[in-house]
């Protein structure tokens, strides 16, 4: 079984990692401590098309 990521999967992985480092990491601890959720971050994720995407096996 080959677990090597395709070029498309690698691009997606890199994009999501960069987004998480820029948008989520700076506020994650504070939001966790306050038990809150960032709808602004969710909106940004939606704008990137991260909801409802299909990734092949």
Describe what this molecule looks like in 3D:
With 57 residues, the protein is mainly α. The protein has a domain at 13-47. The protein is built from 2 helices and no strands. It has helices at residues 7-34, 39-47. The protein is elongated.
Question: Biggest β-sheet, characterized?
Answer: none
How many helices in DSSP terms? 2
SSE order, as H and E?
HH
Structural class call reads mainly alpha
Shape: elongated
Radius of gyration from the alpha-carbon trace, in angstroms: 14 Å
Q: Which strand-content bin applies to the residues?
A: under 5%
Mean pLDDT value: 92
Could you tell me how far the N terminus lies from the C terminus, measured between alpha carbons in angstroms?
Answer: 11 Å
Low-confidence sequence ranges = none
Q: Give a count of the beta strands, DSSP E runs of length 2 or more.
A: 0
Task: Name the helicity range.
Answer: 55-70%
Question: What's this model, at a glance?
Answer:
With 57 residues, the chain is mostly helical. It has two helices and no strands. The chain has a domain at 13-47.
